[in-house]
Amino acid sequence: MGMIGNYISAEKEEIQKILIGELSVYDLEEGSSDTVQFQTMDIDKSWQGIHFLLCNNIKNGEPPLGYVVPMVLEADVTEACECEFGAFHLNTIQITSCYDKIKDFTKDELLKMYDFSSMKEADIYPDVKNEDEEDFFMYISENFMSIKEFYKKAIDLNLEVIFYIS
Length: 166
Known about the structure:
Blueprint: E1 5-10, H1 12-19, H2 25-30, E2 38-42, H3 47-55, H4 78-81, E3 87-90, H5 92-102, H6 107-113, H7 116-121, H8 133-157, E4 160-165
């Protein structure tokens, strides 16, 4: 199975319930609600590859690109979310700054940034040593484009985001 990157965006009040332990990220993930606006997304195992592509390190990348897959210390809410492998919260200002930076990124621009040999050297998850260079780029670039769409919708709905690894 492996470690999967997941996003939840929800209204600030619902995110606060998660952060103080009244609600679990898994509660919003599993169902739908007529009263709460939220969306979920799974980027499979591409999370560390995307973060490395944009920030040239494994975690704690410099914002706003560090907010795409937000594994930044200032956003860490792992303990509050009771997520074994990490959880990170972004408010609407952080999401907007991130989206403003990435909204015009194309696959061609991502390809210019792509350094597969550096990813292999950094031992990016999943084990890229067993991956095809072109296939892995397609995998992370498609998931990046999904994140971009997810953030745009979160901005349009005025939602906050929690990214977590399960």
